[in-house]
Amino acid sequence: MDVRSQVSMVFHLDKCIGCHTCSIACKNIWTDRKGAEYMWWNNVETKPGTGYPGKWENQDIYKGGWEKDGDSIALKGAGKKKGLLNIFHNPNMPMIDDYYEPFTYKYLDLIESPASDDQPTARPVSLITGKPIDIKMGPNWDDDLSGTPDYARNDPNLEGLTPAEQDAMFQLEKMAFFYLPRICNHCLNPACVAACPSGAIYKRGEDGVVLINQDVCRAWRMCVTACPYKKSYYNWNNGKSEKCILCYPRIEAGFAPACMHSCVGRIRYLGVILYDADQIESAASADESELVDKQLDMLLDPYDPEVIKAAKANGVSDSTINAAQGSPTYKFVKKWGLALPLHAEYRTLPMLFYVPPLLPVMASVTEVSKDQNDNLNPIAKQWTDSWLYDTSTEELWGTIDQARLPLKYMANMFGAGDESKIKGQLQKLMAVRIYRRWKTVGDISEEKVNEVLKDTNLTAELADEIYNLTSLAKFDDRFNVPPAHREQAIEMLEFAGDEKGSTGFGIKEKVQRGL
Q1: Measured between alpha carbons, how far is 354 from 267 in angstroms, rounded to an integer?
Q2: In DSSP terms, which residues pair with 361 in a beta bridge?
Q3: CA 8, 13, 16 angle in degrees (round to 5)?
Q4: CA atoms of 125 and 106, how far apart (whole Å)
Q5: Residues 17, 265: contact at Cβ < 8 Å?
Q6: How far does CA 404 lie from the centroid of its chain?
Q7: pTM score > 0.90 for this model?
Q8: Mind listing the pLDDT tens digit for each residue in 241-293?
Q9: Backbone phi, then psi, for 147, in 5-degree steps?
């Protein structure tokens, strides 16, 4: 058992309000410069929608991630042979039009234009060429279902849905959507690392953060193709690839990344998870129906004495183990089973997990009519009828099958196509809501609440824990990451030799002197 530590993330989609504050915080800190104008290391998409870059989930176009090759796996669109064939022309790489050509406006035209009968306008100009352009695309172009049917109806996750199901999703009175924030997943089996011909991309051993060495990068851009989430970008100005660094300078100091610190909806959680690196190959090469389970099986109990012993033997510090024991991400992913990876079928073993949204249902569950509910709207009446008058929970769980976004759609995103995976998560979320309604409002029988909790393998204590971390969590509850150990960094640098450079000091002396 090769126990290692990994910084992991959980995004609670029921709480995201789509304000894009996270994206702006990241943009202001990391990509507010020439060549990076179009980069959104953090972006928030509307689902259904084609996302950013357009149709990034369609690997028939972009050939990202891994594919099963016998008992093992191989890169889908990169690697030694494929990379050599496409080294000078890569047809599977997104172009600037798949993102958008960054632009600004000639605001001086509003001030300096000569007198005229017409109102002066500020023409859009490209930030790349400096020439006037016609704007055809931009970030969040299909935000809040804008652009339908050209965008939302082309969502690759609609695969497997019948035409009738797809049409129902876009009827105005039944329409629903949710927000999907995305950053680099800092995967356990990153395709970008395997695809890089120059070896510039690496995964840090101490926390699992995936980084690009800018001195080594030669701009082959195989990482852009290989990443199925399209979170590696090419800087057209300096000729280097760049990506989300999970604000590692902040993490090393014990602070939350900028996007998470600024999140208005408090949907983001960050913590340490211990995993067994010996299982990476078997988990990544499992059959598609087993991918999610195999990935979750890799994640280890931080309270298990054998796991603690193996972690210490592997150099994991006590502070990291303590952080893993208090990790909010471990609770959501393993203890409660509420969070799932995004597109596990890409086989990169992402370390960003999502709590799926509990969306409104389509129609009334019961036909029971009571005087006290006659004045409620149909959706509210359906919920209260099922809670108050149903004698079993079968009708209640039926609401999940009637969600406005079909289970198949959600399963295509978070369950590798397995609807039972996503249904179990939604049932638990609904059970916590029912339990809290009983506890605060008291209009549901205790017998029914106990039946609901039993059906979802929850207890009252677990339901309270989930509620507290979801709704009442303080900052330190949502982010539990130990600061880096400076002495370990110095120790690693000692192995690099003690050659003296232009400063006249060796590597160790430079670190000690802050040079």
Answers
A1: 10
A2: 403
A3: 110
A4: 7
A5: yes
A6: 22
A7: no
A8: 999 999 999 998 889 999 999 999 999 999 999 999 999 999 999 999 999 99
A9: 90, -5
Copy the structure tokens of residue 334. 């393993």
Nearest to 196 by CA among 240, 237, 235, 229: 240
| CA-to-CA separations, 504 to 401, 496, 514, in angstroms, rounded | 70, 16, 14
Task: State the pLDDT confidence band at 501, using cuts at 50, 70 and 90.
Answer: very low
Q: Compute the chain's Rg from CA coordinates.
A: 25
d(Cα 500, Cα 508) in Å, to the nearest integer? 10
Cβ atoms 185, 49 nearer than 8 A: no
Helix (H, G, I), strand (E, B) or coil at 203: strand
Question: Which residues have a Cβ under 8 Å from the Cβ of 252 and sit 6 or more positions away?
Answer: 483, 484
Local structure of residue 255 (DSSP, 8 states) = P
SS3 103: strand
Q: Residue 294: CB partners within 8 Å, gap ≥ 6?
A: 279, 282, 283, 286
Taking the C-alpha atoms of residue 19 and residue 256, their distance in angstroms, rounded to an integer, is 19
Question: If residue 109 lies in a helix (H) or strand (E), which one and from where to where?
Answer: helix 108-112
Query: Per residue, what are the HEC states of 145-156?
Result: HCCCCCCHHHCH
Mean pLDDT of the residues in the chain? 86
**DSSP assignment string, 20-83:** -HHHHHHHHHHS-STT-TT--SSEEEEESS-TTTTTTT-HHHH--SEEEETTEEEESS-SHHHH
- Paired tokens of 291: 């991918």
Please tell me whether residue 291 adopts helix, strand or coil conformation. Answer: helix
Note the residue count of the chain: 515
Joined tokens for residue 76: 């889908």
Q: What are phi and psi of 225, to 5 degrees?
A: -70, -45
Residue with tokens 């001086």: 108
Query: Is the CB of residue 275 less than 8 Å from the CB of residue 207?
Result: no
What burial letters (b/e) apply to 247-272, b meaning 16+ CB within 10 Å? bbebbbeeebbbbbbbbebbbbbbbb
Q: How far apart are CA 361 and CA 403, in angstroms?
A: 4
Tokens of 271: 């913590």
Could you give the CA distance from residue 72 to residue 285 in angstroms, rounded to a whole number?
5
Cβ atoms within 10 Å, residue 118: 6
* pLDDT bracket for residue 489 (50, 70, 90): low
Residue type, 180: L
Grouping H, G, I as helix, E, B as strand and the rest as coil, residue 416 is coil
Q: How far apart are CA 151 and CA 48, in angstroms?
A: 8
Looking at the DSSP bridge assignments, the partners of residue 66 are 75
Whether 220 and 197 have beta carbons less than 8 Å apart is answered as yes
Residues sharing a CB contact under 8 Å with residue 115, sequence separation 6 or more, in sequence order? none
Looking only at the bridges linking them, the beta strands covering 210-212 and 201-203 are antiparallel
Displacement of CA 300 from its chain's centroid (Å)? 21
